[in-house]
């Protein structure tokens, strides 16, 4: 089986479902949102990240690299990713922790064993396990399905954090084992969705309607991005779509932040969202009231 890559297993998570949770972040997503807080989660393969500010130009990595994939550029080591075999030798000999590879493959038993360590927290807080990303639903379903079956057999509450851009069949296969879908909606306007997320939203909205029709328990999560979708019209479009198509008991309005922008430089990428802004707390309250006044009484900011 082709094992997915995992970015992180976050313990004591309080924002990815009810109670205290363990959140597993899978690597790989087909959307390319311009504000993405975790650009290292977009590629489905292992990636190299380099922190220029940590590097002291000792050049130990160059001396130790067995593939001769590292050379100096302007006095700093520069890695040729085409030559790099990702052996991680350079990490072992970097005294300043300036180098890292993102993405680790684990089989189901290894992952389950790590999750089991937090069982006491789930029992005491009515928490559980959240599978996130990247996009967990775009991973190999022949891995995800037996994983959620094993978690459910153990009695764990399971949440899926998803952007919705994945095959419908993947959702239908795991739906009987999932307690909650944390489902992102960014825009109803398809042209704007293509512009800012890189993909059409047709599959996302169709999947959402179909799993709702199948009786899925759905929390809608709306990232509020100044310059993209914070305007009242965009929010009313989302409200109208939800009222007509979706059964949901909770709305999370998530204000934009730019805390992940430093990761782009580490990946040798340029951040495209410099024009984006963070909605003020007062404006977030206006949006919250807008949803409540339209029948979504369980609307909160954050979470």
Task: Jot down its keywords.
TIM Barrel; Alpha-Beta Plaits; alpha/beta; about 300 residues; nine-stranded mixed β-sheet; 2 domains; globular; two-stranded antiparallel ribbon; about 20% strand
Main beta-sheet annotation: 9 strands, mixed
The CATH architecture assignment of the largest domain turns out to be: Alpha-Beta Barrel
What string gives the helices and strands in order? EEEHEEHEEHHEHEHEHHEHEHHE
Net shape: globular
Number of strands: 13
- Number of domains in the coordinates? 2
What strand order characterises the main sheet? 7-1-2-8-9-10-11-12-13
First-last Cα distance: 35 Å
How would you state the average pLDDT, rounded?
A: 94
Proportion in helices: 25-40%
Under CATH, the topology of the largest domain can be stated as TIM Barrel
**Main CATH class of the largest domain:** Alpha Beta
SSE class? alpha/beta
Low-pLDDT parts are none
Separate helix tally: 11
Task: Indicate the radius of gyration in whole angstroms.
Answer: 21 Å
CATH superfamily of the largest domain: Aldolase class I
**Range of strand content:** 15-25%
Could you explain the architecture of this structure?
- This protein is of the alpha/beta class and 303 residues long.
- The protein has two domains: 5-44 and 106-301, Aldolase class I (TIM Barrel, Alpha-Beta Barrel), CATH 3.20.20.70; 47-102, Alpha-Beta Plaits.
- It is built from eleven helices and 13 strands.
- The longest helix is centred in the C-terminal third of the chain and has 14 residues, at 232-245.
- It is globular, with a radius of gyration of 21 Å.
- The model has no long low-confidence stretch (mean pLDDT 94).
